[in-house]
Amino acid sequence: MVIPVLSLRKRNQIATMKLVQEKSVTMILKQGFDETTIEAIAESSGVSASTIYRHFGTKEKIIL
């Protein structure tokens, strides 16, 4: 059986998505869903808003 090895780029992408999700949940629990913006999530995660839109599309999909 061959175990696929993820590239460094893919591992970094997964780590970034996980960080964004963790920061999002924390902020939403603290501030509320409507008050938490994509821009605020991006800033707290150290990524751009466009990165979040590219990976998730919407704020709802971040937490799903």
Describe the fold and architecture.
The structure is a single chain. This protein is mostly helical. It has a single domain (8-63), classed as Homeodomain-like (Arc Repressor Mutant, subunit A), CATH 1.10.10. It is 70% helix and 0% strand. The chain contains four helices and no strands. The protein has helices at 8-31, 38-45, 49-56, 59-63. The protein starts with 7 loop residues before the first helix and ends with a helix.
Which descriptors would you attach to this protein?
single chain; Arc Repressor Mutant, subunit A; 64 residues; 0% strand; mainly alpha
Summed up:
With 64 residues, the protein is mainly α.
Give the assembly state of these chains: single chain
Structural class of the secondary structure composition?
Answer: mainly alpha
Biggest sheet statistics:
none
Using DSSP, what is the number of strands? Answer: 0
CATH topology: Arc Repressor Mutant, subunit A
Give the % helix.
over 70%
- CATH class categorisation: Mainly Alpha
Element order: H for helix, E for strand: HHHH
Whole-number count of domains: 1
Number of discrete helical segments: 4
- N-to-C terminal Cα separation, in Å? 32 Å
Question: Strands, helices and their partners?
Answer:
Blueprint: H1 8-31, H2 38-45, H3 49-56, H4 59-63
